[in-house]
Amino acid sequence: MTLHCENISFTDLAGQFGTPLYVYSQSALTEAFCAYTSAFSALSPLVCYAVKANGNLSLLKHFAALGSGFDIVSGGELARVLAAGGDAGKTIFSGVGKSEAEIEFALNAGVLCFNVESLPELDRINAVAARLNQTAPISLRINPDVDAKTHPYISTGLKANKFGIAYADAPAAYRHAATLPHLRITGIDCHIGSQLTDLSPLVEACERIVLLVDQLAVEGIALEHIDLGGGIGIVYNNESVPDLAGYARAVDTIIGTRPLKLMLEPGRSLVGNAGTLLTKVEYIKHGEEKNFIIVDAAMNDLMRPALYEAYHHIEAVEPKNIAPISADVVGPICETGDFLAHNRTLACEAGDILAIRSAGAYAASMASNYNTRNRAAEVWVNGSQARLVRQRESFEQQMANETACL
Ligand code: LLP
User: Fold this and answer.
1) What's the CA gap between 306 and 347, in Å, rounded?
2) Of 63, 136, 141, 295, which cross-links 129 as Cys (Cβ 3.0–4.6 Å)?
3) Is the ipTM here above 0.90?
4) 53 backbone dihedrals φ, ψ, rounded to 5°
5) For 312, how many CA atoms within 13 A lie in the half-sphere containing its CB?
6) Residue 191: per-residue pLDDT
7) Distance between CA atoms of 169 and 312, rounded to whole angstroms?
8) CA Rg value for the chain
């Protein structure tokens, strides 16, 4: 049977919009968002979608309409949230390297809070707020030193990582923040890593953070909110992923009767499996040792296999009754690292369309122009309706900011 996104076949989408093409399912996005709000309903959390996973404006607008807040890590992401009609008052600003200009932009926009990652950043936010005659709401990102048991490049909560303030230094950092007149301490935050397939590190991090909340309360520093960072992992292949309801129950038990507002910053689990990258087979090449399925998508469209050796499931959109071959699925980029999959068995031939699954998160948002490839178009599917939500880039757009003046 031909593969579909909602009621539209991928064959039709590839025919209408061309390839490579990211396709997003509105119902899958809605379902993923509601999975969080319903699992955590007892705690009425503010779900702040992590824009870095996919910043497409239509997607942000859709989440805003569902009541989502946003987790941003740059002025650019704030500009996207505002352009999509998102509420700055539900937006939290994370990241280790906020510039003065970004802090000013966020303060003027009226963000909900800054997740602060170091003492110099506290001082900088205080100084910018003083200059603007404002008070900046802040939360400290504390590194709970918990092993997230994920790929080292996306593990962020260990002592060796650049993120957050060391757990042992947290009380002193809060005391320092309390002396800065243009800051208002509102919360505490942590984020231990991404693509988490085990619940225990998440629960352990929550326990450690709540322990700190209690210690700070004794010192007279009362926090209003606790932010547990990113969401759970998703199924790319055959991994088992944590049960959201179980996570919610554990958090509810740990928070108990403390009057703490809960915030979450899921990215991947809200969008990852709502997206598919369609690509056309250009050639089948029988190499000396291996076969290669050369497609028109490449590492610039989906960097995850090259960067993390990540697995993305690949299927032929129109199943064919031909002999399957075992092959690497590779792009046209001049790098050995330009692969989308190694050693897959696929029944396809030149001209066929392949669906690369789980491409809603960290795919389009990590795309580049390497080899002067235009960034791919993005399409939004709602039932039987498909809309272009990002045009395919043109060569003119790529070169627009350059001059050949020498
Ligand atoms: N909050 C903070 C502060 C983060 O750093 C991240 C992700 C999130 C939230 C969202 O986490 P999620 O719910 O998506 O797990 N490019 C990598 C993933 C990098 C994640 C970085 N931080 C990948 O493709 O796997």
Assistant:
1) 23
2) 136
3) yes
4) -65, -40
5) 32
6) 94
7) 40
8) 23
